[in-house]
Amino acid sequence: MAGKTNQGETGRQWEETLPIGVDKYRKVIDEDWDSFGFDITTPTPRSINGHLLHRIVTYIAGGYSDTNLWECFKEDFEGWTIDIWKLANGEIVRDMRNFLRRYGVMVEKNGGPITQSLQEIIDNTEEPVWTEEEIEY
User: Fold this and answer.
1) pLDDT tens readout for residues 51-77
2) Which of 60, 69, 96, 107 is the most buried (most CB within 10 A)?
């Protein structure tokens, strides 16, 4: 029948085009992971995971870092809550935290939930300042 694809053969070809780093998460994201159409009112674990990965890829491609990255992160995740973060894959959440830190956004590493540290970035109006301890860490 024309127009139909065999899910086992061609229905998952999108997985073959995933960027390096994103490809390891193919089982926890949807085909439209790189869409700009994330709907915060109906989040699912797969849509959240895809959105997080898409933002990381976009930030890297755009050369975002430091204050610019902090501002974009706050804007892109406006309206997020701890409950939304808790639906995300823990490794992807950790990747987001590590990415932000690597590119100049001070995300606290205090032994508490990473989701809480990321939510604090969104909720606070002031850009966090790196402490001497954090810089050495």
Assistant:
1) 999 899 899 989 999 999 999 999 999
2) 96
List the domain range (segments joined by +) for residue 107.
81-137
**Cβ contacts of residue 48 below 8 Å, gap of 6+?**
84, 87, 88
Q: Is residue 106 part of a domain?
A: yes
What is the end-to-end Cα distance of the chain in Å, rounded?
59
Contacts of 40 (CB under 8 A, 6+ apart): 79, 80, 84
Q: Is residue 122 part of a domain?
A: yes
Query: What is the pTM (predicted TM-score) of this model?
Result: 0.81
Helix 45-62 vs helix 66-76: crossing angle, to nearest 10: 150
Which pair of tokens denotes residue 67?
Answer: 């204050």
Here the tokens at position 134 are 């954090």
Share the mean pLDDT of the chain. Answer: 84
Q: Is residue 57 part of a domain?
A: no
